[in-house]
């Protein structure tokens, strides 16, 4: 069964993946900087 994928759907997927990458890197940067500052000692 073939499903036609509209262009805007593909653009949406690309935008979501880009957002996910930004989120993951942002969380990594945040945890790294907070560990550096020593706000959240393990």
UniProtKB/TrEMBL annotation:
Name the record gives this protein: Uncharacterized protein
Organism lineage: Bacteria, Pseudomonadati, Pseudomonadota, Alphaproteobacteria, Hyphomicrobiales
Superkingdom of origin organism: Bacteria
């Amino acid at each position: 069964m073939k499903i036609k994928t509209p262009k805007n759907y593909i653009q949406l997927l690309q935008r979501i993946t880009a957002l996910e990458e930004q989120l993951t890197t942002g969380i990594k940067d945040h945890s790294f900087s907070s560990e550096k500052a020593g706000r959240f000692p393990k």
